[in-house]
Amino acid sequence: MARYSAGTVDCPGSPKSVRIVVVGDKGTGKSSLIVAAASDSFPPNVPPVLPDTNLPLEFFPDGVPVTIVDTSSRYITSRSI
Q1: Tell me: the pLDDT tens digits for 25-77?
Q2: Dihedrals φ, ψ of 36, to 5°?
Q3: How far apart are alpha carbons 81 and 59 in whole angstroms?
Q4: Are 17 and 69 in contact (CB under 8 A)?
Q5: Residues 8, 62: contact at Cβ < 8 Å?
Q6: DSSP state of 50
Q7: What is the rounded CA–CA span in Å between residue 28 and residue 30?
Q8: Distance of alpha carbon 9 from its chain centroid, rounded?
Q9: CA-CA-CA-CA torsion for 75, 78, 80, 81, nearest 10 degrees?
Q10: Which of the two residues, 12 and 22, has the higher pLDDT score?
Q11: Can you give the pLDDT at residue 10?
Q12: With b meaning 16 or more CB within 10 Å and e meaning fewer, what string describes 54-71?
Protein backbone atom coordinates (compact mmCIF):
# COMPACT_ATOMS: atom_id res chain seq x y z
CA MET A 1 0.00 0.00 0.00
CA ALA A 2 1.22 3.50 -0.81
CA ARG A 3 2.29 5.79 1.98
CA TYR A 4 1.38 9.45 1.50
CA SER A 5 3.50 12.07 3.19
CA ALA A 6 3.75 15.80 2.44
CA GLY A 7 2.49 15.36 -1.10
CA THR A 8 4.84 12.52 -2.01
CA VAL A 9 4.16 8.87 -2.65
CA ASP A 10 6.48 6.12 -1.46
CA CYS A 11 5.61 3.00 -3.44
CA PRO A 12 7.70 -0.13 -3.71
CA GLY A 13 8.97 -0.37 -7.27
CA SER A 14 8.46 3.34 -7.98
CA PRO A 15 11.16 4.90 -10.16
CA LYS A 16 14.23 6.38 -8.51
CA SER A 17 14.85 8.44 -11.64
CA VAL A 18 13.32 8.99 -15.07
CA ARG A 19 15.12 9.26 -18.42
CA ILE A 20 13.29 10.77 -21.37
CA VAL A 21 14.80 10.26 -24.82
CA VAL A 22 13.85 12.86 -27.43
CA VAL A 23 13.91 11.62 -31.02
CA GLY A 24 12.78 13.18 -34.28
CA ASP A 25 13.74 14.39 -37.71
CA LYS A 26 16.61 16.82 -38.28
CA GLY A 27 15.77 20.47 -37.67
CA THR A 28 12.52 19.86 -35.79
CA GLY A 29 13.67 21.54 -32.57
CA LYS A 30 14.53 18.60 -30.31
CA SER A 31 17.49 20.36 -28.69
CA SER A 32 15.64 23.69 -28.48
CA LEU A 33 12.74 21.99 -26.71
CA ILE A 34 15.11 20.48 -24.14
CA VAL A 35 16.86 23.80 -23.46
CA ALA A 36 13.51 25.58 -23.13
CA ALA A 37 12.23 22.95 -20.69
CA ALA A 38 15.38 23.02 -18.56
CA SER A 39 15.92 26.78 -18.45
CA ASP A 40 12.44 28.22 -18.91
CA SER A 41 13.79 30.36 -21.76
CA PHE A 42 14.27 30.02 -25.50
CA PRO A 43 17.85 30.86 -26.51
CA PRO A 44 18.47 31.77 -30.16
CA ASN A 45 21.49 29.46 -30.63
CA VAL A 46 21.41 25.85 -29.49
CA PRO A 47 23.97 23.16 -30.39
CA PRO A 48 22.67 20.38 -32.65
CA VAL A 49 22.99 17.71 -29.93
CA LEU A 50 23.04 18.39 -26.20
CA PRO A 51 24.64 16.36 -23.43
CA ASP A 52 22.21 14.65 -21.06
CA THR A 53 20.20 17.38 -19.33
CA ASN A 54 18.89 17.14 -15.77
CA LEU A 55 15.70 19.06 -15.12
CA PRO A 56 15.58 21.01 -11.84
CA LEU A 57 14.11 18.91 -9.01
CA GLU A 58 11.76 21.74 -8.03
CA PHE A 59 9.88 21.15 -11.30
CA PHE A 60 8.45 17.93 -9.87
CA PRO A 61 6.65 17.66 -6.52
CA ASP A 62 7.59 13.99 -6.10
CA GLY A 63 11.33 14.77 -6.25
CA VAL A 64 12.14 12.09 -8.83
CA PRO A 65 15.14 13.26 -10.89
CA VAL A 66 14.38 13.61 -14.60
CA THR A 67 17.12 13.43 -17.23
CA ILE A 68 16.40 14.32 -20.85
CA VAL A 69 18.56 12.63 -23.48
CA ASP A 70 18.97 14.39 -26.82
CA THR A 71 19.59 12.33 -29.95
CA SER A 72 21.15 12.93 -33.33
CA SER A 73 18.79 12.60 -36.26
CA ARG A 74 21.59 11.17 -38.36
CA TYR A 75 20.73 7.62 -39.36
CA ILE A 76 23.55 5.23 -38.50
CA THR A 77 23.69 1.68 -39.76
CA SER A 78 26.05 -1.10 -38.77
CA ARG A 79 27.69 -0.72 -42.19
CA SER A 80 28.73 2.88 -41.46
CA ILE A 81 30.37 1.99 -38.13
Answers
A1: 999 999 999 999 999 888 889 999 999 999 988 888 888 899 999 998 776 55
A2: -65, -40
A3: 39
A4: no
A5: yes
A6: P
A7: 6
A8: 21
A9: 110
A10: 22
A11: 59
A12: ebeeeeeeeeeebebebe
Length of the chain in residues, anyone?
81
Domain ranges of the chain: 14-73
User: What's the Cα-to-Cα distance from 71 to each of 18, 45, 57, 67, 75, rounded to whole Å?
Assistant: 16, 17, 23, 13, 11
Contact by Cβ (8 Å): 27, 19: no
Residue type, 81: I
**CA pair distance 43, 35, nearest whole angstrom:** 8
User: Distance (Å, rounded) from C-alpha 57 to C-alpha 17?
Assistant: 11
Q: What is the pTM of this model?
A: 0.69
The reported pLDDT for the residue numbered 50 is 94
H/E stretch holding 38 reads helix 30-39
